[in-house]
Structure formats: structure tokens, C-alpha cells
Amino acid sequence: MAIREGKTRTDKYSKSPKGKKGGDFSKFKKKVNPKARPMGKSAPKKTVKEEETTINMPTDGTMRLNKYIAHAGVCSRREADKLISTGVITVNSKIVTELGFKVQAGDKVHMDGQLLVAEKLQYVLLNKPKGFVTTTDDPQERKTVMDLVAKASTERIYPVGRLDMATTGLLLFTNDGDLAKKLTHPKHRVRKVYHVYLDKALTKVDMTKIVQGFELEDGMINVDKISYVDGDKNKKEIGIQIHSGRNRIVRRIFEHLEYEVTKLDRVVFGGLTKKDLPRGKWKHLSSSEIDFLKMI
């Protein structure tokens, strides 16, 4: 399924009113790969032991302490510098506050007395189905996205951003704190494309309002691109590209104009697509996909 031109049909993409912020979206529906990796059940949590300190160190046998902490899945390197400065990090039982300090293979790094183990960086992409909460632990004991990727990695991975329970589509998981922070920070304008299903036809007047931007309760909102989906004569299906990561932002845009979003699917995240990734399945990113995300 592709997005259609507002007035003309010169190609498979569309334009918004007056040619502003028009389409250039990829096709939404992809073929299902019958050989896709199956969804697994929860895997047992990894127990950290003192002897589990072997990591892949650089060729000189050393690694900056903030990078080591980030690879342990604690936080980003910048946030690790703050932890180091506060004196909560010890190396071989000695408090280290020096920024730029390097650890060597075999060193024991602790944070508040807890052993940190630098892990192999993992990057997992899930095509989330509806009915799952984006959290690592739910007090209400609902199904979480972590159940879907339980067998994807022995390392601890975390969702990058979130999709609400009713929203489907692409969700990235990683233990790369630096990349996670980069992908969720608004200044990097990470591209996210959604396929929106509405309860009624979106008028051209309202589409123009969205293109021009308007004020919501938490500030001004602007979209990057918006257009009708090709093949939908009722104009109830919309393609929208946005970089904001504000809570429920796509739903709130349409609710502001008195439309109900009956279905919402994220089809592109930072250049990653759902190609060959059926609903409820996951895959490890290729090295080229990882490199692409790091160049954003």
C-alpha cells in the first residue's frame, strides 16, 4: 500500500495540500516471510558473577571507563561521566572520579557495590503487535514487549522509546546506551513514519491545519510530511512522518481535530522498515543497518 497524490497521480506517492510537506513514503504493506524467526518465551535472567568479567577489549587491552559503563547497559557515556564524577564507581575496590580513566581486561568495576559486566552490544528490531505494553516490568502484570524478545539476546536489552499498548509496528531494542539516547533525542530528528487509520475522512482543511502546525497542551507540534494513503478512496488512511517523541503525539494530533484513530502502525523508524518482518517477530540488525543508525 502506498500513499496517493492529493490531486494528481504522477507517481505512487502523495502530496499534502498546496504541495507542502507531501509524501515520499515507502509502501506500507510488505510480504510475510514464512521463514522469519519465531517468537520465543521468556528466557531466564542472567546471573552476574564475579568471574564474568571477560569482555571484548580494544587491541591495546584498555577501554575508557565511561564506555565500559555504557556497555554494561547502565546509561550513555555522557551520563556515565556524571556517575564517575559523583564517586559511585570503583575499579578494583578503589573509587575513581577521573574522567578519561581507562580500565584493563580483568579489572572489576562496581557501581554502588554492584558488579558491572560490559556486554556485547545487541540491536534487535521487533514488529510489535497490539496488546503489549512497552516496559521492562509491568506492576499490573500485563503482557510486555520484553516477552516478545526474550530469546533475542542473553544480554539485557531495552526498548528505545515506546509504542502504546494499542499501537503496532517497529520498536528497537538495544543495550547501546549512547545510540538509544541519540535516537530518542529530538535534536537528531529521527524519522518515524506511521500509517494512521481514522474513523472518518480527513478533510483537506484539517490536513492543511496539520501541515501548518498547531498548539497542543504541551506545546507546538509540527509534522514533517503528511498525505493520503494511495488506494484509499475514503481518505480515512493517512501517512504521517514525524520526528517528535512526545507521548501519544500522533493520536493527539488527530484527537485535537476531533478524529478518532482506530488503528496506528509505525512502519518506518530511523530508516528501518518492516520488510520481511511479520507482526510479532523480531530480527537482529545487520551491520549495515547498525552503521546507518549510528550515522544519524
Summarize the structure in short.
The protein is α+β, with helices and mostly antiparallel strands and 296 residues long. The chain has two domains: 13-31 and 120-288, 2-Layer Sandwich (Pseudouridine synthase), CATH 3.30.2350.10; 62-116, Roll (Structural Genomics Hypothetical 15.5 Kd Protein In mrcA-pckA Intergenic Region, Chain A), CATH 3.10.290. It has helices spanning 65-71, 77-86, 145-148, 177-184, 204-212, 249-256, 287-294, and strands at 62-64, 89-91, 94-95, 102-104, 109-111, 114-116, 123-128, 158-159, 168-174, 192-198, 214-216, 219-221, 225-228, 237-242, 261-269, 272-273, 282-284.
N/C terminus separation: 27 Å
- Based on CA atoms alone, the radius of gyration comes out at 22 Å
Query: Regions with pLDDT < 50 over 5+ consecutive residues?
Result: 2-20, 26-55
Distinct helical segment count: 7
Shape: elongated
Could you say how many structural domains there are in total? 2
Query: Average pLDDT, to the nearest integer?
Result: 83
Characterise the protein shown here.
With 296 residues, this protein is α+β, with helices and mostly antiparallel strands. It folds into two domains: 13-31 and 120-288, Pseudouridine synthase (2-Layer Sandwich), CATH 3.30.2350; 62-116, Structural Genomics Hypothetical 15.5 Kd Protein In mrcA-pckA Intergenic Region, Chain A (Roll). It is 18% helix and 23% strand. The protein has seven helices and 17 strands. The chain has helices at residues 65-71, 77-86, 145-148, 177-184, 204-212, 249-256, 287-294; strands spanning 62-64, 89-91, 94-95, 102-104, 109-111, 114-116, 123-128, 158-159, 168-174, 192-198, 214-216, 219-221, 225-228, 237-242, 261-269, 272-273, 282-284. The strands form four sheets. Strands 7, 8, 9, 10, 13, 14, 15, 16 and 17 form a nine-stranded mixed β-sheet that branches. It has a four-stranded antiparallel β-sheet with strand order 3-2-5-6. The protein has a two-stranded antiparallel sheet with strand order 1-4. A hairpin with an 8-residue loop joins β13 and β14. The longest helix is centred in the N-terminal third of the chain and has 10 residues, at 77-86. The protein is elongated and about 65 Å long. The two termini are 27 Å apart.
